[in-house]
Amino acid sequence: MYPDDHTPDAANPTPQGPSRRSFLKQTGGLLGVALAPPIASQAEALADKLAPASPVLSGATPMSLNINGQVKSLRLEPRTTLLDALREYLDLTGTKKGCDHGQCGACTVHIDGRRVNSCLTLAVMAQGKQITTIEGLAKGEELHPMQEAFLKHDGFQCGYCTPGQIMSGVACVKEGHATTDDQAREWMSGNICRCGAYPNILAAVRDVAGQSAKG
């Protein structure tokens, strides 16, 4: 090449630093190393170590349930609902199976004092908790005030929904959600039976709420 050469190549000599293509190649190589299978496997192993242990239960499994103050030992499939455990395995048939989809409230029981639909609760999940059914509400021959109120106000018709209504009524008063008729209706709305006895059921709940307010 001569000093007076003015061809395009001579006017724009090739830069001495890394080209764009070589830069992309180097970057891609580093990224590939970062995502290499051995490192990914190590990350998965570390995640497994850090994850909490969650044993998979299958088949009939021993478990114990504290029901109405008594511990009951059972062998149940993990998929067994609390409702079926009560009715089919412990012969506590006061808790009724209605819709079996958590929509009617007939299966209402208390777990640690809170009302739940036992058809939507797995028995295995209720271990270590205090379960109260309609059979455990009275103290011997002494009825619970809500049971007495249902008798006083004739809150029965066919009676099928009655255990669930009583269990919900007890919780509703305890929660302070029965201070007016409208409030009691709203907070008892999970128990959907609306037969001719419903006004009497409402009167019973309001009666007990009034007793509680007086102390």
Write the layout of secondary structure elements.
Layout: H1 8-11, H2 20-34, H3 37-50, E1 61-67, E2 70-76, H4 82-89, E3 108-111, E4 114-117, E5 130-132, H5 145-152, H6 162-174, H7 181-187, H8 198-214
Parallel strand pairs: 1-5
Antiparallel strand pairs: 1-2, 3-4, 3-5
Description of the structure:
- With 215 residues, the protein is of the alpha+beta class.
- Helix content is 40%, strand content 12%.
- The protein has eight helices and five strands; from the N terminus they run αααββαβββαααα.
- β1 and β2 form a beta hairpin.
- The longest helix is centred in the C-terminal third of the chain and has 17 residues, at 198-214.
- The chain is elongated, with a radius of gyration of 34 Å.
- It starts with 7 loop residues before the first helix and ends with a helix.
